[in-house]
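Record pair follows.
FIRST:
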Amino acid sequence: MGEKPAEFDQESNPEAGPAETSEPVTEQGAEAAAAEREGESGASNDPLEALQAEIASLQEQLADSQEQVMRAAAEAQNVRRRAEKDVENAHKFGLEKFCSELLVVVDNLERAQEQADKDDEALRPLIEGIELTHKSFLDVLAKFSLERVDPVGEPFDPQLHQAMTMVENPDSEPNTVLDVMQKGYTLHGRLLRPAMVVVSK
C-alpha cells in the first residue's frame, strides 16, 4: 500500500519527465546547429584561402624562374661576346710571332742598304734590287696591318719607344727622338716591337 502512491505519482504526472528532458535537448540542438553553420562557413573559406596561398606561391616561383632565365640569357650573351672577341683577336694577332720573325729580314735589308756603297756604279743594280725587295716586303707587311714606327724628330713616347741613350743637343727640345737605332712596328695598333731610339736631354 505504501509503494503505490509513489508509482501513482509518476504515472499521474507524465509531463514531468518530458518537460525536464525536452529543454536540454533543445539547447544542445541549437548549439549543434550553430556549430554546424560555423563549420560550414569555415569550410567554405578554407579552400579560398588555400587557393590564394597556392597562387601566391606559384607567382613567386614564376618570378624566380624568370629571373633565372634572364641571368642565363645574360651569361650566354657574355660568353658569346667573349668568344667573338677571342676569335677576332686570333684573326688579328695570330701572325704576331710570324711577323716578329720577318722583322729580322727587314732589318737585314735596311742594314744592307746603309752599308752599300751607292757611289759604286757596279753595285747600283744590286742596291736597287735590295731597295725594291725592301719596299715589297714593307708593302706585304702593310697588307696585314703591320706598320713601322720611325719617330725621328718626334717627342719620346715610352709606350712606343725604347730609349737606348740620351745625348745633349741644344738645337732640340728635351725628350726629343734624335736618331732611331732600330725601327719599331705595330700590328693592328698593338706594339709588336718598340723603336730603339736616341733621346735628347
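SECOND:
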Amino acid sequence: MKKIVGLFDGIDKVMSIIASFTLFVMMVWIFLDVTLRYFFNSPIQGTIELTGEYLMVLLVYLAISQTQKHDEHVRVTFLEEKFSEKMKKVTKFITNILAAPFFLFIAYLNLQEGLEYLEQNIKSVGVLDYPLAPALFIISVGLLMIGLRLIIECVAILFPKLIAPSTIMKPVDDEDINMPV
C-alpha cells in the first residue's frame, strides 16, 4: 500500500510542478500583455481566453490534490479548534468519505463531456479557435486526483500504520514557526 501511495504522491508532485510552472507562464504572459497593451497599444490576441480556459484550469486542477495533502485549502476552523484530536479525525473522515464520491463522479462527467467535445470538435469562440476538450480532460484528472487523495486520507485515518505518515501532512501552526521579532 505504501508503494501505491508513494507512486500516487509522485504523480501528484509532478502535477504540482506543472501547475507551478503554469503560474509562472501565466504571470509572464499577463505582464507582457499589459505592457504591450499600455506602451504599444497592441495586446497579445487571445490572452483572456487562453489564460481563463487553459492556464487557469492547469493551475487549479493540477494542484488541487497537493493542496489537500498539505491541508492548505481555505476553511473555517473556529469550531474545529475546540475539538479533540479524535473528533477532528472523525470529522475529517466523514467529510472526506462524503466528498470523494462527488469528486470522482464529477471527474467522470467531465471526462464524458470532454470525449463529446472531442468527437464534435467543439472549439472556443474566441480569436484563437482552439479545442476545448483538453481543458475538460485536465479537470477530470485533477478531480480524480483529489477524489483519490480523500480516499487515501480516509484509509490513513482508519489504518495509520498502513500508509506512510508523509501522506497526511499536518498543517503548520503559527507557534511552530520560529520567526525573529
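COMMENT: The chain has a mean pLDDT of 88.
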